[in-house]
């Protein structure tokens, strides 16, 4: 994948174990909700947080395993996580993780025992949700979804076929991204939740 920076240092489990805990006892996550984007990841996290032994940040802690946050380091990540009591575990949800092919290796290197949760939804319904979100998302004023209709983006009028190059649509082709996670995590370590 040429579009990401391979020279970024990948944190190992030893480094993670040696990262000093702060006084508020913030612990790194034991489980990650990795996506799929617009498939119900927030609802899944909210349901899990109802359990008294599960803590999660109130907001996505900046997508730690994505380049821009990852380079800020482990200490930074810890400050974004909630404090834990003895009998609690923490989960983190970042709906984008699933769609970044370099993230599985970083997560595995960080904690090879990490429990992975993936929620999926009817791929077409997810795609429409993704499109509608980007259409009205203020922070991406130049995204193509603002400019074109759904049909113009989803359909290749030259070939008469579905436009498989549209990033939004690609995010609904779950098996492509899932294969990347299976390169690092055994299938039994990934819980796939039906979001429909
Ligand atoms: N149980 C439950 N409660 C609330 N919302 C639910 C639930 N199940 C699915 N959804 C739908 O999930 C869509 C948002 O998905 P995400 O939370 O993954 O979005 S995000 O990627 O984190 O932005 C969003 O979809 P759209 O309304 O179609 O946009 C939610 O309606």
Automatic annotation (TrEMBL):
Top-level taxon? Eukaryota
**Active site: residue positions:** 38 (for sulfotransferase activity)
The record's SUPFAM superfamilies line, in alphabetical order, gives:
P-loop containing nucleoside triphosphate hydrolases (SSF52540)
Q: Which UniProt keywords apply?
A: Glycoprotein, Transferase
- Which chain regions cross the lipid bilayer? none
A molecular function annotated in GO for this UniProt entry is: [heparan sulfate]-glucosamine 3-sulfotransferase activity
> Which positions bind 3'-phosphoadenylyl sulfate?
121, 129
Q: Does the keyword Repressor apply?
A: no
Q: Does the keyword Metal-binding apply?
A: no
Domain Sulfotransferase intervals? 29-195
Q: Please report the name of this protein according to its UniProt entry.
A: Sulfotransferase domain-containing protein
Q: Which organism is it from?
A: Capitella teleta (Polychaete worm)
């Amino acid at each position: 994948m040429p579009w990401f920076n391979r020279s970024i240092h990948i944190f190992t489990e030893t480094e993670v174990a040696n990262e000093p805990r702060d006084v508020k006892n913030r612990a790194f996550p034991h489980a990650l909700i990795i996506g799929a984007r617009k498939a119900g990841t927030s609802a899944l996290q909210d349901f899990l947080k109802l359990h008294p032994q599960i803590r999660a940040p109130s907001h996505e802690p900046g997508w730690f395993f994505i380049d821009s946050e990852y380079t800020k380091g482990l200490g930074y990540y810890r400050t974004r996580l909630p404090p834990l009591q003895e009998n609690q575990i923490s989960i983190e949800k970042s709906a984008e993780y699933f769609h970044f092919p370099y993230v599985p290796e970083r997560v595995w290197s960080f904690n090879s025992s990490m429990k992975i949760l993936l929620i999926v939804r009817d791929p077409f319904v997810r795609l429409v949700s993704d499109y509608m979100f980007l259409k009205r998302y203020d922070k991406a004023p130049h995204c193509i979804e603002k400019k074109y209709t759904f049909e113009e983006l989803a359909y290749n009028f030259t070939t008469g076929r579905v436009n498989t190059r549209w990033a939004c649509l690609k995010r609904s082709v779950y098996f492509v991204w899932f294969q990347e996670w299976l390169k690092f995590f055994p299938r039994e370590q990934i819980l796939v939740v039906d979001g429909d």
